[in-house]
């Protein structure tokens, strides 16, 4: 925030995955760990508050990703998204990559806040490559 304070869109301990293949195809999912279960136990039977928490507490999109190393930017060509307004958009993000940590900034929101996504590489994979 402009005063230097930090807020979290997906609460203190979000869960997520960012997967990028060798061809630059990506899939990204972020979820608030504090999203409540639907009392009815039925996705279509959620209350307005449950539906709002489910939507606000998650972000997913997939498409193609390219890197401009000189400009330190990522280019997301979004094929589809949980936020329908992003469908078909191309979005560019300034990024940093240090060791196994990738982070990028989202453009400032109307209120002046600047969201930052931070991803840590999972080095525990047991999948072998041919």
Automatic annotation (TrEMBL):
Pfam families documented for this protein: Lipocalin_5
Alphabetical list of InterPro entries matching this protein: Lipocalin-like (IPR024311)
Domain Lipocalin-like residue range list: 4-111
Protein name (record): Lipocalin-like domain protein
Native organism: Marinicauda algicola
């Amino acid at each position: 925030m402009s005063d230097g304070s930090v807020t979290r869109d997906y609460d203190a301990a979000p869960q997520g995955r960012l997967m990028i293949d060798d061809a630059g195809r990506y899939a990204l999912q972020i979820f608030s760990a504090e999203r409540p279960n639907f009392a009815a136990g039925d996705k279509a039977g959620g209350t307005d508050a449950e539906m709002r928490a489910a939507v606000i507490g998650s972000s997913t999109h997939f498409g193609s990703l390219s890197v401009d190393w000189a400009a330190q930017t990522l280019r997301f060509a979004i094929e589809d998204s949980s936020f329908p307004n992003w469908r078909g958009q191309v979005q560019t993000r300034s990024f940093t990559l240090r060791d196994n940590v990738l982070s990028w900034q989202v453009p400032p929101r109307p209120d002046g806040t600047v969201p930052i996504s931070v991803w840590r590489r999972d080095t525990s994979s047991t999948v072998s490559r041919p």
